[in-house]
Amino acid sequence: MELSLLLVGLIGLFSHNVLCGELTFELPDNEKMCFHELIDKGVKSTIEFQVVMGGNYDVDMELTAPNGQVLYKDVKKQYDSFTWTPDFKGIYTFCFSNEFSTFTHKVVYFDLQVGEDKPVVDNMGEHATAMTSIENSAVNVFEELKRVLDLQTHFRLREAQGRAFAEDVNERVLFWSVGESVIIILIGIGQILVLRSFFTNKHKTSSAT
Q1: In the chain, what is the straight-line distance between the N-terminal and C-terminal CA atoms, in Å?
Q2: How far is the CA of 194 from the CAs of 28, 187, 201, 206, in angstroms?
Q3: Residue 15: which pLDDT band, with cuts at 50, 70 and 90?
Q4: How many CA atoms lie within 13 A of 53 on its CB side?
Q5: What pLDDT, on a 0 to 100 scale, did the predictor assign at position 79?
Q6: For the chain, where are the E strands, in sequence order?
Q7: pTM for the model
Q8: DSSP 46-105
Q9: Rounded to an integer, what distance in angstroms lies between the CA atom of residue 48 and that of residue 72?
Q10: Residue 116 — left, alpha, or beta (φ > 0 → left; ψ -120 to 50 → alpha)?
């Protein structure tokens, strides 16, 4: 499965002072793509990425602070996550590199979360012991829905990765089968020509006699 669009999906959700961004994009061979995000000081942030398809399902990733400090760097990773708390406000840059690959492009997914969710119920800590059963149910449902959403995202990524792998194997099997068929046909034609040459030589010998 090939993706003709550079940006396949982009979702931005702004709620409870939390920024959640999910993006799936195509990373060509010998290319490097960088993304930038303005993050305030002390705001806990998490980035998670995974290579959905392409080559050996690996990519280089680097996260850089506004002062140029490298907070995270790893090479040829299939998937990983990193959490950090900025020491100062500024634009943080995270880059994905496929420069080590000469002919295979990659499709990469990443999820950036900046900040933490506020409690479902305001001042939850002050009256936690006096919460009603409805408030408890609402909190539990909210937490379970977040968990379900994360699981669905991971399952979709695994399904896309498995489908891409299956299609790649199917394409290789098809090419191999076509190659074998061509070889068998060529061998058959060769055998016919060889047998025909035997009878042709005998015919010429009989005529000369």
Answers
A1: 67
A2: 49, 10, 11, 19
A3: very low
A4: 19
A5: 86
A6: 7-15, 18-27, 32-39, 45-53, 59-64, 70-77, 79-84, 90-97, 106-114
A7: 0.61
A8: EEEEEEEESTTS-EEEEEE-TTS-EEEEEEEESEEEEEE--SS-EEEEEEEE-TT-SS--
A9: 12
A10: beta
